[in-house]
Amino acid sequence: MKLIILDDYEQVSEWTAKYIRNRIKKFNPGPDRFFTLGLPTGSTPLGCYKKLIEYHKKGEISFQYVKTFNMDEYVGLPRDHPESYHSFMWNNFFKHIDIRAENAHILDGNASSLEKECQDFEAKIKAAGGIELFVGGIGPDGHIAFNEPGSSLVSRTRVKTLAMDTILANARFFDGDLSKVPTMALTVGVGTVMDAREVMILITGSHKAFALYKALEEGVNHMWTVSAFQQHPQAVFVCDEDATQELRVKTVKYFKGIMDVHNKMVCTVSISLYFFY
Amino acid sequence: MPSNKSVSDAPITQFVNCRILKDHKLQWEDLWVREGKILNPEKLFFDEEGFADHKVDCEDKIIAPGFIDVQINGGYGIDFSQASSDIRGGVALVAKKILEHGVTSFCPTLVTSPSDIYHKFLIVSVLQKVVLLDLLAPVMLLCFSPQVIPELRVQDGGPEGAGVLGIHLEGPFISEEKRGAHPPKFLRTFKAGGLADLMEIYGHLDNVAMVTLAPELANSAAAIHELSGRGIAVSLGHSMADLSQAEEAVQHGAKFITHLFNAMLPFHHRDPGIVGLLTSDRVPPGRTVYYGMIADGIHTHPAALRIAHRAHPAGLVLVTDAVMAMGLPPGRHTLGQQQIDIQGLHAYLTGTTTLSGSIATMDMCVRHFREASGCTVEAALEAASLHPAQMLGISHRKGTLEYGTDADFVVLDDTLTVRETYIAGQKVWRK
């Protein structure tokens, strides 16, 4: 995996947005060849979305031939509720770019059969040719999407009951009233994300530091589901200084030392200078 | 190319690069319009998988709901209260011209008039009710009395002009001492106050949106009750009422004050009069008392405007109370029986310093209000749109840019100058 360590949240947002932009441009999508992108919600990716919108408005990127698949959605929350993930994606991303609704896929937490909805979602991913790049965040308990501690590392899209940690963390979006926070969600599985050709995880803030340590420096463990990506052939972790606080100095020094190579992946140049190592 | 056809075939227009007045704030948001109504783009995206057919670049301007003028007596040489042979033509001319001021809906106002004028303007054809077809009315006209036609009626706005929300009847049930320029011989009192009195004077109430009356007149309560029950906004004005009489009127249903400060007892610290309604604690819960202000800098001193605004900002409604000289160029004009000299925003009776009424346009009032009160742009715009709509009980379709409401709006620059006016999503005027 590549660990990209940047100074702060703004730099993380910018680096990630540039990476996604360059990825899409290199892929060169068209009407018969959509770029499939997995997307997260929450405060971590907000800055990245803002940057992507900026690049779009400057004409540097189009989402006309991009298909998106969101990771999760609450069960039972009305779709137009301000805290639903549909609302989040519309307000923070979709309404500012040129994506068509039929190419934006989000799980429907109000479907009459949740199980069928999950199966259909997996089928849609498969029909789209699989996911090129899955972007995600990490919970303080090391979860990816709503794959709470104890989730199978080969799980697929399904209904999950949220852990108390997650409900408490979400309460701030529901006026601090625990009774208003949804207790269940539809989520892609760890296995679903692992199937993507590339995975990019964003981790910012010191409250995520311990989870990052567990995900990178300890073993693959279903109690810290992000650790599954140690076994993914193309994983990129992008974090800020604060999130590195529980890592070994040796780890941090190593990855900081190769930032020159990493930064080539986000510069605005022609495709031929795109490096892998 | 996938289409928007799941709910409607009609084209969708998206106004971009604009700041819209939404949730009481100017926000950098796009405005979406379909079939003359404001469209919810999130629903369009997720439910219909729809997208815009046309995009209009507003070049960073402000979009506000169209202005609503609930007190306007005429303009451009037209006086609504005069019994002319072409009443509808007169209203139509004013309706068209006020589009330039950002007004998309208005209430043509009739001052105190003789009963037969009311009957002529307000009567609704019995034939219309029976036949229910406008097309046959002209045919019927040839056979029946020419007075049996609706002269002033509620109608939607469009490229021909601003919409008529209904008539504002200012009088004749007003106070003699506070009649202002209203002709004294046509003032009336209530006999019993009920429907009989109203019908005897007005004839019909079908196209009436507002009535201004003086609540201290005996038996006014029954009239207020009757009018409010019909959805007609009762306004207190041209009155000598004290605060308790005014509060009683509010309890019976009155909800507006006609041109606050003018034609009423002045505020007194031991008897606040009608002005005291702004901070009254006897307004029934859940109700708001609204008040009209002529913010031309002349009819109300800016300090008085500020006092009213600070005391009760949510109730302030900008009105022009414009007279027929509004819109005419500077200089001397003969209007009816009078000679008027127009200088700037002042219209004097020729050779005197007596004002003959206000001639400020609604957009001028919005700008002046903002400057004089130091209020936010949002507050100034809402005083001319949201508040009059709320007062008339039509804010579910006018006066806002909420989803599903009528797409009547104005495009303004940062000086609050009107650049374009839209009614039902169609551009009806541009500078």
Q: Mean pLDDT of chain B, nearest integer?
A: 89
- Which bin fits the share of residues in helices of chain A? 25-40%
Main beta sheet of chain A, described?
A: 7 strands, parallel
Number of strands of chain A: 10
Mean pLDDT of chain A: 94
What is the 3D form of chain A?
A: globular
The class by helix and strand makeup of chain A works out as alpha/beta
Task: Tell me the fraction of residues in β-strands of chain B, as a range.
Answer: 25-35%
Low-confidence stretches of chain A: 271-277
Low-confidence stretches of chain B: 125-133, 140-149
- The first-to-last residue Cα distance of chain B is 36 Å
Would you give an account of this structure?
The complex is a heterodimer of chains A (277) and B (431). Chain A is α/β, with parallel strands linked by helices. Chain A has helices spanning 9-27, 46-57, 85-92, 114-127, 164-170, 190-194, 209-217, 249-257, 259-263; strands at 2-6, 35-39, 66-70, 72-74, 104-105, 133-136, 158-161, 184-187, 198-203, 235-240. In chain A, the strands form two sheets. A seven-stranded parallel β-sheet of chain A has the order 1-10-9-6-2-3-5. In chain A, strands 4-8-7 form a three-stranded antiparallel β-sheet. In chain A, α1 (9-27) packs across α2 (46-57). The longest helix of chain A is centred in the first third of the chain and has 19 residues, at 9-27. Chain B contains twelve helices and 22 strands. In chain B, strands 6, 9, 10, 11, 12, 13, 14, 15 and 16 form a nine-stranded parallel β-sheet that branches. In chain B, strands 1, 2, 3, 4, 5, 20, 21 and 22 form an eight-stranded mixed β-sheet that branches. In chain B, α10 crosses α11. Chain B is globular and about 60 Å long. Chain B starts with 11 loop residues before the first strand and ends with a strand. Chains A and B meet through α3 of A and α1 of B. Chain A: It is an enzyme of class 3 (hydrolase). Chain A: It is found in: Cytoplasm. Chain A: GO terms for molecular function: glucosamine-6-phosphate deaminase activity; identical protein binding. Chain A: This is Glucosamine-6-phosphate isomerase.
